[in-house]
Amino acid sequence: MRWPDPALTRIFSTMSSPSRARHWYRRTAIGVVMLAVLFALGPRTSASEPDVAAVGRLVPDDVAALSEWLAGHERTAGATDTFTAARIRFFDDTVRTRYAVLHMHGFTGTRQESAPLADSVAARLGANLFDARLAGHGMTPDSMRTAGATTWMTDAVRALAAASQLGDSVVIVGASTGGTLASWLAAHPLLTRSPIAAVVLISPNFGVAGPIPTVLRLPWTRVIVPRFMPRFVLDDQPAPNSDFERMAYSWTPVSSLFHMIALVDHVSGMPLDHYRARTLLIQNRSDPVVDVSQVEAWMARLRGRGVQTHDMWVTVADGENPHVLASGRTAASQLVPVTTRIEAFVRVQ
């Protein structure tokens, strides 16, 4: 029999010798192992925690100076749109109140996405309000290229330090990835001395729904994927008005997804030995954005540590957003019930 390809003839003649065949198999196996090791050791995106003590020291301890300090910080960051910039809203005068509400928005959103929920909660509690803005948000989608898990954790620490000056006790209201950061603040061993009275988690992100996170956790994907898909489309429907265009991005650089997933993985895996804050979950079981089973697992972990937890399962009306709950723009039917539930939860100690 004559092989049509001389190369195949050489391969099979080599394998016909037992010693040569073993040598060939050995070299092939070594090559496969080396490739597997190279793949496994490929770059991944991880979350590094900031120096929380150093960040906190940068916040003035004079309540009257906080507004000017925050405005200067936002100007330096390039967040010139007052519609989405971080802000402080005093309940009455520039004095401390019994409660201070710290509101943190979600990934690619802004404080306007769930407005006026935080304002309503603060008004009912007679509380000062700190509306945070996470780095890269509230400007342009390209701004997300310079943001990441560490900068978002830094923003959360800074916001908590400011809120601690605004009120004797802090109520953290975190939506989606803002809920991830709220949980990180409440669990951090160096931050548990902060006066956190309660944590409210609205559609918190402890795992994104669907297969995308699994793929993006693989080695080398942070190098390969952005080359072929630099943008990730979040909403392919045209915005109904200019306010919607300003309050949440319709797309984000795909590189920012790696940082969001790294943040979620970091918080989801952290120990809860120091978590003490009473926690209220507000969630829709049909949420298409976050993995609800991961949310339930997080709450079960809190209960296992003896944390006092409460749940409010929400069903939105037809046409309303099943993830951005209790928003005047996207889920107005839940605004009053959710506000009432949060007020009752905070007041009953």
Labels describing this entry:
349 residues; alpha/beta; seven-stranded mixed beta sheet; two-stranded antiparallel sheet; 13 helices; globular
What coarse outline follows from CA principal-axis ratios? Answer: globular
Cα-to-Cα separation, first versus last residue:
89 Å
DSSP helix count?
13
Largest sheet: 7 strands, mixed
Task: Describe this entry's structure for a reader.
It is a single chain. The chain is of the alpha/beta class. It contains 13 helices and 9 strands. The chain has helices spanning 6-16, 18-40, 52-57, 66-77, 117-125, 149-166, 177-187, 212-216, 221-228, 242-247, 254-268, 292-304, 335-347; strands spanning 87-89, 97-104, 128-131, 167-175, 196-202, 231-233, 251-253, 278-283, 309-313. The chain has a 7-stranded mixed β-sheet with strand order 1-3-2-4-5-8-9, with helices on both faces. A two-stranded antiparallel sheet has the order 6-7. α5 packs parallel to α13 (335-347). The N and C termini lie far apart (89 Å). The mean pLDDT is 89.
Kindly summarize this structure in a few lines.
It is built from 13 helices and 9 strands.
Write the layout of secondary structure elements.
Layout: H1 6-16, H2 18-40, H3 52-57, H4 66-77, E1 87-89, E2 97-104, H5 117-125, E3 128-131, H6 149-166, E4 167-175, H7 177-187, E5 196-202, H8 212-216, H9 221-228, E6 231-233, H10 242-247, E7 251-253, H11 254-268, E8 278-283, H12 292-304, E9 309-313, H13 335-347
Parallel strand pairs: 2-3, 2-4, 4-5, 5-8, 8-9
Antiparallel strand pairs: 1-3, 6-7
